[in-house]
Amino acid sequence: NVDAGGGDRAPIRYYITGMASAARRQTVAMLGDLCNMAGSDVQPIDKGQHETPTHVIANRITTTTNFLVGMCGASHVVTSEWVAQSFAAGKLLPEARFALLDKKFEADRGFSLQRALRNRGMSYPKGVLHGVHVVVTADLDPDRRIITPDVVGVLVTKAGGRCYTVAALPQALAAVQKWAPSDAGDVAAVVVTTQDEVTQYAEHVEEAVDTRIYSVDFVINTLLQQRLNLRDTSAVLEVPGPDEDETC
Fold it and tell me: Which element (helix H / strand E) includes 217?
């Protein structure tokens, strides 16, 4: 017999990400067996639904849409060992023992994943991007088509912000003027675009001296770390200097 861990347990809605196909299939099968045998409410979130999960199951930190959506609301980010050992035990085990720890990724990025999850509700109860307007240019990811403007819109909205897509950088720079902090209290406005756009519209950028212009890494870093850092220099895009232009 399989025990779901108590009849008062809330339904589990999960994403699996950052796993090889075989490991994913095995994990889904074990979760399905736990659900069927115990009558528990444990279900995957359908692809493309972008529903906030209760659990993210991953063996490493990724920057997939599912992982980042999970960072905005999931109660637990655990490894596949939580599923394997729960299956072996015949019940859903407490998640804390199986919390995801990706030492190298976290050291490289300078944050703690589990601390970010714990602090999320206390520091940003309305979402880490609450009060932030993000204006995205349409060519955000022309080659990979992974972090598209639509995906950024989902992520920003899940994090409590507002997202707008415009055709090109000049329109983005004009749009953010509507939400200047001096006119809108605690509202911040940022542009998310590409280095190609910044280079192409260098004159517009140089005129917009007080506008924050970032790569998509700004959104990724903010959601992963669950910390709003408008001085995130690692994601800032700037007009290349003369020497850089000559070498491009």
Answer: helix 217-225
Amino acid at position 248, single letter: C
Q: Six-digit token pair at 116?
A: 């970010």
Tokens 């006119």 sit on residue: 183
**What are all long-range contacts of 215-218, with beta carbons under 8 Å and residues at least 24 apart?**
216/140, 216/141, 216/147, 216/152, 216/192, 218/190, 218/192
In this prediction, residue 36 carries a pLDDT of: 73
Q: Taking the model in full, what pTM does it have?
A: 0.88
Vertex 194 angle, CA 182 and 212, to 5°:
15
- Per-residue confidence (pLDDT) for residue 43, from 0 to 100: 86
Q: Outline where 39-178 has alpha helix (H).
A: 65-71, 80-89, 103-109, 113-123, 149-158, 169-176
